User: Fold this.
Amino acid sequence: MKNSRKIYSILLAGVMTTSFASCSKSFLDEKLKSSYAPDNTLVDELGFEAASTGLMSIFRNDYGNTQGLMATYFVGTDMAITGQPNAVQAPFDDYRNLNSSVTAASSIWNWCYKVINAANNIIKAADNKAATLTDAQRLLYKAEASFFRAYAYNHLSILYGGVPLLTEPVTTPRTDYTRATEADVIALIISDLNFAVANLPDPAGVKKQGRINKYAAAQLLAEAYLRANKPAEAQQAAQSIINSQFFSLVKNRYGAKANQPGDPFADMFTYGSMRRSQGNTEAIWVVEQQYNITGGGASFDQRRREWGPFYINMAGMKLADSLGGRGIGRIRPTNWWTYELYEKKDMRNSQYNIRRNYWYNDPASPKYGQLVVATGFDTIQNIYAHTTKWYEFQPNDPQGSSSFKDRIMMRLGETYLLLAEAQFMQGDLAGAAASINVVRNRAGATPVDAAAVNMDYILDERARELTAEELRRLTLIRTKKLIERTKKYNPKAGPTISDYNIHLPIPQSEIDVNKDAELKQNEGYATK
Amino acid sequence: MQKNALCNRQPYAPMRAPGRLFPTKMLLVMKLTFFLITAAILHASAEGYAQRITWAGNNVPVEKVFSAIRQQSGYTIVASRDVLRNAHPVTLNVKNADIRDFLDMVIKDQPLKYTIEQRSIFISPKPVALPAAASADQQAIDLKGKVTDEAGNPLPGVTVRVKGTTQGATTANDGTFTIRVSSGATVVLAFSYMGMRPEEVTVNSSNRSSLNIILKPAIEQQTEVVVVGYGTKKRSDVTGSISSVPKDRLKNLPVTNVLQAVQGAAAGVNIINNSTRPGSSPAFYLRGLKSISASNAPLIVLDGIPFSGTYNDINPNDIESIDMLKDVSASAIYGARGANGVIMITTKRGKSGKPVITYNGYGGPEYQTNVVKNMNGDQYREKNHWYNIQAGRPTAPDLPYLSEQQNYANGVAPVDWQKEISQQGYIQSHELSISGGTESVKYYVSGTFLKQEGTLKGYQFNRSSIRANIDANVTSWLKTGVNMFFVNNNEDGGRVSLFNANALSPYGTLYNAKGDYEIYPIAPQTLYQSPLIELYNPAINRNKNINASGYAEVAPDVVKGLKYRVNASYGYRPRRTGSYIGRKMGDNLGTANVYNEESKQWIVENVLSYAKTFGKHALDFTALYSAQQDLLFTTTLTANTFVNDNLDYNNLGAAQVQKTYSADSTSTLVSQMFRANYVYDSRYLITATIRRDGFSGFGASHKYGVFPSVAVGWNIQNEHFMADLPVFNQLKLRASYGRSGNQAVGAYQTLTRLTTEPYIFDGVTSMGLIPDKLGNANLKWESTTGLNVGIDFAILNNRLSGSIEGYSTKTYDLLLSRKIPSLSGYNTIFDNIGKTANKGLEILLNSKNIVGDGFTWSTSFNISFNKNKVVALYGDNKDDIGNNLFIGRPLLGIYDYTMLGIWQEGEDNKVDPGTKPGYIKFADINNDGKIDANDRSYLGTQLPKYIAGLTNTFAYKNFSLNIFIQDVHGSLRPNNILDNRDQGGIVNLPADIPYWTSENKINTNPSLFYNNPRGYKYAQDASYLRLKDVTLSYQFNRDLLSRYKISNLMMYVSGRNLATITKWKNWDPETSPSSITSSSTRLNNGQGTGQQSSDFYPNTATVIFGVNISL
Assistant:
C-alpha cells in the first residue's frame, strides 16, 4: 500500500510537469518552414532578385490556363473570326453575348491585378529601411516593378476604362473598391514609366537578358502619352529609343536558319533567333521561353496552336515541322487581312511570313504533292492564310499544347509606328510618312505618301508589321477604332457590335464580391 | 510443458475456463492461439458423456472412491481436503453404473454435492437445505443447461435461481450450470445477468434434457452503455444527444468503409456518397452544415483518443460500436473540435471466457446502378448535323475530325466507349478474429483482407489490416492496455476515364495498327485521349496507417472512486503514389511522378476522475490535460526525358529533367477540460463541462478558446407517481446548452506567404518569388452554441420506444475562405465572418410490431429535418452574392436565373437581344425590360429538407430479413448533364437528353449551339428514395452446431443500392460529379458543374453472399 502511494505521487508529479512544460507559449507558436514570407525574404538583394523574377513569371503566365483567351484579343476585331469554335471566344464573334459573366472579362482582369499586387509588394518593400539594399538597388527594383505595374494598368485601362487604383500591396481584404477615372490611371502609368525610364539600365547594363531596360519603359511611355493625348511627349519617348543606338531594324539574314531559304523578317521569328543575344538587333524586350527546361515556359501558351490552321484535320495532310507544328485553327484571319492588306512584294507577305498554300504531304495519299484546294468549311478551320510568326515544332512534343517560343514583346519596328502616330497627331504628316517608310522600306514595300497617312493607314501598317504580335484589340480600343473597323472588316462580329463594346464589361464576380461599394459597370453592360 | 499437459490429459480443456485449474493464467493466453488450432485438429469428434463405473467396497474413505473413479473414467476430480473432512466412508457394490448415478450413490447422505463440467468433477459442500426442500429431496435431480448470448457465445457468471426458493447457482466459464431440483416438480428457473434481459424458464420433465437458454441484450435504453467523451455512461444517465448506430448495421453489409454502413441508420446523420469509387470515403456531417469553408466533418475519436486517419483506416469488422455526440453539450467535451459533432468509434475487445475464433467472409458482384447512355453513331451524327446548322456553318462535316470521317467512310463499327471501359465488378472480404481472455488479460486480435474490383477498368481497392487490442489488470489498482493496428490501403493501377468515354465520338478509333489503344481516338483532335490509355500507367497509390495507443489506469485503493488515466497515442501514416506516362500514352519523353507523404501525430491525455455515491446522490468529476501535435511532410518528385520506358517511376535520377518539391506543416493543440456529473436518485441528472483549447493555427492573440456547456435530464419513469402509469417503461426529458468550436483550418493561415516559381534568363533557370496567400493575423475559433431538448420514451412493455429531439444551434465567427475582389491580387482569404443557424427535429422510433413464437417483425424509423440559414455576414445585413451567402437563406443556395422555356422562332426577344431561337428564355424577375445579372434570385438549396431511414426486420425461425430504405428529400441540385455545352459540337452527349432544333421545337431543353453565356446551372430536384440494403440471413441451429464444436454459423445474402425512385436525370442523385460538401462548390454558387470531374465514378449496386462462423 505504501508503495502504491509512492507510485501515485510520482505519476501525478509527472503529469504536472508535462502539463506545465507543454503550457509554455512556444508550443503553440507557428514556425513557417516551407514557405517564404514577405517579411523575412524581401529584405536583401537575393530576395529582391527572386521577387523581380517572380514578377516576370506572373507576367509571362498571361493566359492562365484558359484555352482560347488569347484569341479574344484578335477575334471580333478587324483581324479575325473564330475558326474552330471555343466558348471563351464565342462572345467576340457575336457581341450580343458579351456580358459581365464571360470568362475573358474576369481572366484578363485577374491576371493584370496579380501583376499589380506583386509589383506593389516590391515597391513597398524596397522602401523599407531595414532591407539591406544600396540606394541604387532600391531604385532599380522599384523601377522594374513600376514598369510592370504600368504595363498592367495600361492593359486594364484600355480594356475596361477607369479601374480601381491600387498602389500599395493588399494586407487586409477590402470590399469597397471604386473605379478611378481613366485619366487618373493614365497619370499613374505615366508617372511610373517616367520613374522607370529614369532608373532602369540600358540594354548593356541589365543584369540578365530578358530583364527590363529603360527603352522598354520608354516604348510603353510613348503609348501612354498617346493615350493621354500628349503626342509631343510620345514622340520624344519614341525618339529616345531610336536615338539610343542600341537597336537597329533587321535588314539582313541572321540566326539559326540564316542559311535556309527565307528573309530577314522571318529570321526574327525563328526559334533560337529571337533574343538580342541570338542576333536580333531589333528586339527591345523579349520574354524568354525554352522547351523542357525548368522555368522554361508558361503552362498554357497557346499562340502556336491558335494561329495555326487545323491542317492535320485534312485527309492527306500530316503534321510537319516546316508547317509550324500543330495548329488547331482558332483564329481565322478576316478576308481583309488575307486579301486586301498586303502588297505582293511586301516582305512581310512573303511565303516565309505568311503561308497561303499547302501541298498534300502524306506519302500515302493519292494526292501527295498536289496543291491543297480547300473549299467551304475547310477554309474556315483547316486551311487558310496565316502568319508564320508562331511556327514552332518540338520533335518530342508533336501534340504540344503549349508554345515554348520566345515572345518579342517590343521591337524597334513598332517604335517607328508609334513615332508615326505621334507625328500624325501633331499634324506632321511628312514626318509620320517618313517614320512609316522606315518600316516599309525594310519590307521592300512601296513608300507611303504623306497625304495618304491617316489613323486608318497607321492601323493598317501596324497590322502588316505587327500581326500576331500586337494585341490588336488593345490597339484598336486605344485608337478608338474598334467599332468602326470591326463593322467594316469583320463579317461575323461586325453586325453584332455596339458602341458600348469598346470596353469589356467589369467582371460580375468582382461586382458581386465587392459588396460595400459599387464597382460601376461599364455603360451598355450596366444594369441600371 | 503446460501445453503438453493440457493436450494429453484434457482435449476439452480449451472449451472451459483455463484459469480454474491452473494458476498460471497469464501464460495460457499466449499459448491459446496455437493450442486452439491443435485442439481442433486433434479432437475431430466428441466422445460420449456416458462413463461406466464398476466398484465395490466397504467403509472406504471417499478419497479412495474418487481415485477409482478417476482411474476408470479419466475424469479429474477436484475437491479440497476441508470439504472431504466431514465426509463419511462409503459402502457400495455397483457394476457398470453411469458415473452420475454412481456419484449420486457415493455422496448420498453426505454433506457434499458435485458438479460435472465436461470431464471434471467438482466436489463442494452441500448448501444447507431448507427443511421443506430437504423433505422433497428424496427425488432430487440435477438440472443442467447452458446459457449463451444471441450469437451463441457462452455467458459465464449468470445467476441462476429456482424461483420461490433460495437455491441458486452461477454459470461456469463455458456458460453451463447445474442446479438441483426435486425431480417431479415443475420449477421456474430465473436467469439474470447484467446488461441482459432477465429470463424465466419453466422446467418440467419434458424439457429438462436440453436447457439451452439464450439471453438477449437488454435493449431497454436504461441499461445500455454509451460512449461519451473520456468515459462511458449508462444510457439512462445521458443528458446530451447521442445517437448509437444499431449494431446490426455494422454487420453483414458489403461496405468498405464504415460510413457506408452508418448512412441513414441514425437520425441527424447526413452521409453523402459522392463517389462509390473503390477506396473512396463518403462525406459526412451531423445536423446540418454549420461551417462554410471549414470542414463540417465530425471529429473521429477512436477508442477514446482523437484520431487523425481516415475512415478507410478503420476496418468496419473491428468496430464494436459507434456513438455519435450530436448536440453541442455532448460534443463540447471535445471543445475546439466538437462543433461538427463527434463520432466515437469503439473497436472490439476481448472478454474473459473461452477464446472465440470468428471468421466473417463475403463476396459478390457489383454493378453500375444507372448508366446515362450516350448517343450511338447515328444519333451522334444527327446531333452534329444540327449543331452545325445552329452554329451557322451548315457546310461543316457531321463528323468533325479526320479519323472519325475515315472510320465512318471505311465502315468501322462504332465504339461503345462506356462498354469498353466497364467491367464486371466484384467485392470480397475475409476477416479472422480471435478474442478471449481471463479476468487479468483480455485480447482481441483480427486480420482482414478486402478486395474490391470496380465496375470500371483499373479501379480497384484492397485493404489488409491487423489489429490487436489487449487489456491487462496488472494489480487491483492498475490496469493497462494497448490498441495497435496496421492498415494498408492500396488503390494501385492506372484507371480508365469515364469522363473521356462520355466525351468521345462513337466513330473514334479504339486500337491503333499495333493493337494498342489509340492515344487520340478522334485525331487530329487531342483534347480527348482514349479513356483506356491510363491502363498503360503502372500507377501505385498506397497509404498505410500504423497506429499504437496505450493507456494506464490507476485506481488507488486508498481513495475509492479516484482514477487517473493516461492515454498516449502515436499514429504514423505514410502515403506513396507513383505514376509513369510513357510513349505508349503519347509522352515521347516519358514522365514519372512520385509523391511521398509522411504524416505523424502524437497525443498525450491525462484524465483524472473521481466518482462517489452517497445515499441517493451520485457525483463524478473528470479533469483532462492533453497535448497533441500533427506533423506532415510531403515530397513530390517529377522527372522527364528518359532513355526508354523501362524504369517506370523507380529511378527518377535517370531522367534528364527533374523537379523536386517538398512541404512541411506542423500544428499543435493543448487542452484542459473539467466535467462534473450529478445524479440524484436516478431521477435528476446534471452535467456541466468546461474546456479550454489552444491551437497553433490561430492568430497570436486568439490562440485559446473556452467552451462551456451544461445539460440536465429527468428520468420521469423513476418518479413515484409514474408507478401508477405502468404503460411507460421509460420517459425521460433532456435539455442541454453549450458551446463548442471548430478549428478546421490548416496551419499557417494567419501568415502571408510567398510561393516560388521558376523562370529562365538566357536559358538558365532562375527562382522567382510570387505572392501566394494572404494571411489573416486575427484568425480565431469558429464557435457553435446550441440548445438541445429531447424526450426518450418506451411504452407497452418496450414494444414501442424512441426519442424525439429538437435543436437549435448558432455558429458564429465562421471560418470562411471567402472570396475577395481579385483586384486585390488574391482571390480568397481565411476569415471569421458572420453567423449561421441550424434548427432541426429528429425522430427515432423503434417498434416491435409482431412478437410471436416463431415470427417477429420489428421496425426502426428515423427522420431528421434540418433548416439551415445564414443569419448575419458582415454586420451590414447585405447578401454576399460573390460568396453565395444570402441572409436568411440556407447555405449551398442556388442563386440563378429562372428558366421560363425556350425562345421559339418568331418570338419577340427584345428583353434578351443576344438570344436566338433555341436559347433559354429567362424570366425578367425585376421587370426592367432586360435580362441581366439582376434577374438572378435565390431558387433553393442543395441541402435536403429531410432525410429518413426505415428498417424493417422480419425473423422467422432461423431466417431473418432486413430491409433498409433511405429517403433524401427536397434538395435542389445543379444538373450538369442538362447543360449541352458540347465543346463546339465535338463531344458526344447523353442520348436521352433532347435538344431544340428548328424541326423539334421543344420548350424544355435548349439548342445544341446554346453555349450557356449566363452560366445557368440547370438546378433540378435531386430527391430520391432508395432501397439501400436488403439482407436475408439464416442462422444455423446451435444445438446442431455444437456437435461440431461450432458455436455460431450464419449465412446471408445481402444487396445494396438495389432500386431507386428519383426524378433526377443524371447518373445518380447521390453520387454527384461536384461534391456539395466541397467548400469550393459551396462558394461557387454550385457552379463549375458544367463539367463532370475527371475521376467521376458511377454509383454501385452490390449483391453479396456471406458467412459468419464462430468456434
